[in-house]
Amino acid sequence: MSEIYRTFTSESVTQGHPDKVADIISDAILDAYMAQDKNSHVACETCVTTDFCMVFGEITSTADISDDEIEKIIRDTIIEIGYDNPDLEFDGHTCEVVNRLHAQSPDINQGVDRGEEESGAGDQGMMFGFATNETDSLMPYPIDLAHKLTNKLTELRESGEIPYLRPDGKAQVSVNYDKNGNVISLDAVVLSTQHDETMSDNQEQLKSDIREKLFKAVIPDELMTEDTKEHINPTGKFEIGGPHGDAGLTGRKIIVDTYGGYARHGGGAFSGKDCTKVDRSACYMARYIAKNIVASGLAEKCEIQLSYAIGVAEPTSIMVDTFGTEAEIIDNISFEQIVRENFKVTPDGIIETLGLRNVSYKQTAKYGHFGIVGLPWEKTDKIEDLKKYIK
Question: In the chain, what are the domain boundaries?
């Protein structure tokens, strides 16, 4: 085995994690408004705690959605996630629901809606996108594997294969790399899962089930070595979880949502925001650009930064970092020029290119916004256009 040069760690959480519950509710409300009015402007935040959920924020839309319908969306979403039992102290059937949504500020809206002119960015800020060829999804290996673990954990719960599982859970993986950036093994795997009262004094059976039905199903055998450390529910029982165990807020899992800390982050959250808001849409575009650059062979690894000023359509800057992995490019053309020649990076251009008015956003809030087949920013339809720049 190659010598370990560095170790990198990323985590993922299940959809029953309190912060993810909040994200999913925010995006469910966004989807409801977009379904009726594709030009809706939505900035919906959610907070959850013991038997309580509140939504708040700003919405401007022609959609006709009553307060009762908003409440039903919230309750249905909570139940769908798996909180449908009063024993969990957070039950979609009976929890208190408070709605504090109101109209968007006209001061902000005037910079976005500009009649026949190109729409301006909904806010200032910088947004990052990333891709690397170390996985088939062109995602970093640590976050890719962590998402697979939490996704499978939920599948085992929903199917009843491990019947005592409850919705809350986390996975964390530490990946060993050699000096050439190749994945060689796992240094550690951490899995914490909520469970019912029957397993509080039977943690060894739980650990055995997780090893046999989760780890062996998801983790490649060659990466698990005698030195790989396993930590399953390391604090002991995990009976109290979800919003009863810890309050949840929209936008607190931005690293889980993106690249697991492997790439830089501009600081903006995604969920509950419509596609005119560049802290969501420009991150999707940056991923689309970076993925096509890597998929075309222009680079083995690529990070894109886009920055915007509120009310201004064109980005204030475009940065491309290929970390020394770029191919030889014709005519010494810059990567920034390649991006400008092949991608529309104004808010309207991003929405048009990626079809962002026709996306179901609730699905993106569950196991990361990137690396999921079928999402429009994951397509690699620019490969042939970009290959022409390789010398």
Answer: 6-12+141-240, 125-133+278-387
Q: Give the predicted TM-score (pTM) of the model.
A: 0.95
Alpha-helical runs (H) found in the chain: 18-36, 67-81, 106-112, 141-159, 203-210, 216-218, 242-245, 254-257, 278-295, 335-342, 347-354, 383-387
Name the residue type at position 251: G
* Tens of pLDDT, residues 144-176: 999 999 999 999 999 999 999 999 999 999 999
Answer yes or no: 76 catalytic: no
CA atoms within 13 A on the CB side of 255: 12
Q: What does the pLDDT look like over 61-96, one tens digit per residue?
A: 999 999 999 999 999 999 999 999 999 999 999 999
Q: Which fold has domain 6-12+141-240?
A: GMP Synthetase; Chain A, domain 3 (3.30.300)
Q: Which of 8, 11, 17, 209 is catalytic?
A: 17
* 290 given a catalytic annotation: no
